[in-house]
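Provenance and format

Records in this collection were gathered into a single text stream. Each protein contributes a sequence line and a token line. The two records reproduced below are adjacent in the stream.
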Amino acid sequence: MAWTREQMAQRAAKELQDGFYVNLGIGIPTLVSNYIPDGMTVQLQSENGMLGMGPFPFEGEEDPDLINAGKQTVTELPTTSFFSSSDSFAMVRGGHINLSILGAMQVAQNGDLANWMIPGKMVKGMGGAMDLVAGVKKVVVVMEHVARNKDGSVDAKLLKECTLPLTGTRVVDLVITDLGVFAIDKKGSAGMRLIELADGVSEDEIRAKTEADFTVDLGGGARKAA
């Protein structure tokens, strides 16, 4: 077994704290808004100039003028404010966002992140990711543990070194995959630690699908992965 997309988003929501200003990336990270704990006040910020986003609208109630940075329709709240994208990026670059939850193509054991480009393939582009990883206080990545190819093979996404163009170097604090959770000492030498396993997942499965070096710290004391 492994975590579903919704379970990964639910685990990511545990990183939220009351009063946080949070930026959610495209894909699985957008689901985190469904799991904000009751009674917790979190302000969701979008690079296109919106602070205080509400939940996704019900079918038939969409407003095409109310979208997030991923062009998904959203709703507004009584506390929502709107501003220019330049002001939005000033918030990001000025260190005023507490947490960003992003998707990724690759993460290295030292916290390097690649999440915007695969050479030779059409992609949406950098967006605000480079600014987010440089200016936000804590960066959490939510992604599938491996990349699945058309021929049925898989490629590791947690690597010793990223092979794709980087979004940022030593920027990732936490990685949540469908198999488990890894903490990264991005500014020090402790590297990557496996701190949680998804339901029904073994350490052996994690090791088989992870190229990066990591230690294991599941509550029984840290040890090096075999």
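Adjacent record:
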Amino acid sequence: MPTWTRACATNDIDPDDLIRFDHGAQTFVIVRSEDDEFYAMDGICSHEHVHLCDGLVMEGTIECPKHNATFDYRSGEAKRAPACINLKTFPVRVENGDVWIEV
């Protein structure tokens, strides 16, 4: 059964940036868009299993630091090769300056 888990404080992430969040055996990225919205997605690239936390956030996507695959952080959709498998996204809520994800 999914539960809400605190991932970080809102001020831990600058606009148009991301951070890594590990919970149990799972790795996530938490993204703060330039519009000040928060998103959560699997944190490992589906192509070469590289951590996306060192990737670049730009124009609604995260670019993998290894082979430049990109993923839409709102939907998890693989947008550019070499990645062709979408990533899972997770519900996010913001309460009292904290970012929570449903895992």
